[in-house]
Structure formats: structure tokens, C-alpha cells
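Milestone 3.1: sequence recovery, worked example.
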């Protein structure tokens, strides 16, 4: 059973023609782009998007990305992509679910892990910086650190 997150957002995507392969289904590499769209909305919604990350002095490279394909998506298909914040104290872990927007059929499950890296020193941080912890505390005050 997958761990449930404390906060989630969903985005709607309509599969464009240039994302499908000669078999008329979404090429597997394009699903990562859909995850990125949902991740950006999630991070922006907690006021810690990529510009805020940079301004706080940290980059957050993805160090692990896992996808499980269940059913293919096709040209013109309406998708809903959910991004769910699962871990944030030592790393940023997000779970994703891509579904057919009309039927709710699960198409793809995924997860990404990002770690904080100091831009100035280029060193990986062993715990998440206060700026992320404060962003999470704003959406769920019970998560505030002392």
C-alpha cells in the first residue's frame, strides 16, 4: 500500500499530437513531462516553486524517479495528474497518479525524490532546509517545527 500524502493537487492535461509515437500512444518518456507539470503546481501552491527554491539558496535535483505504466494514454485523451506530498523533512518525495479524466481509469503511478543542494557550496543537505519546512507548515500547521 502506498503511503498517503498530507497535501495534493491535480492538473488536467490533454494529450497533444506531438507526444504520441507511431503506435498512436503516448511515448513513455513524455509521462515525465506530465509529472513535472503536476509537481510545479504542487510546489507553487505551497509557495515554494522553483524560483522560490533558487531564491532560498537551494536547488532540488531529482535523485530517484519511478514509474509504473498500467494502461497507455492516447492522442487527444483528457488526463488528470495528481501530485501528492509524501515526505519533506529529509527529502522531498512526491507520489503521482495519472488517470483518464472521464473514466478515472488508472494509467500510470509514479514517485519522485528530490534533495536539497546548497547552490553556493554545491553540497547535498542531510535534512530539508527551514524554507521548505516552513512552506509545509503553512499548509498544515501541525507540521511546524520548533
Amino acid at each position: 500500500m502506498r503511503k498517503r500524502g498530507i497535501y495534493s493537487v491535480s492538473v488536467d492535461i490533454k494529450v497533444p499530437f506531438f507526444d504520441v509515437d507511431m503506435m498512436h500512444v503516448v511515448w513513455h518518456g513524455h509521462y515525465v513531462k506530465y509529472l513535472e507539470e503536476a509537481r510545479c503546481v504542487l510546489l507553487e501552491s505551497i509557495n515554494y516553486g522553483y524560483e522560490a527554491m533558487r531564491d532560498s539558496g537551494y536547488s532540488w535535483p531529482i535523485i530517484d524517479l519511478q514509474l509504473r505504466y498500467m494502461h497507455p494514454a492516447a492522442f487527444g485523451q483528457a488526463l488528470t495528474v495528481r501530485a501528492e506530498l509524501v515526505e519533506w523533512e529529509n527529502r522531498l518525495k512526491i507520489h503521482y497518479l495519472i488517470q483518464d479524466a472521464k473514466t478515472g481509469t488508472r494509467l500510470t503511478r509514479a514517485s519522485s525524490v528530490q534533495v536539497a543542494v546548497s547552490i553556493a557550496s554545491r553540497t547535498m543537505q542531510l535534512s530539508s532546509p527551514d524554507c521548505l519546512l516552513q512552506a509545509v507548515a503553512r499548509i498544515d500547521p501541525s507540521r511546524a517545527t520548533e
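The CA atoms of residues 6 and 140 lie 8 Å apart. DSSP finds three helices and seven strands in the chain.
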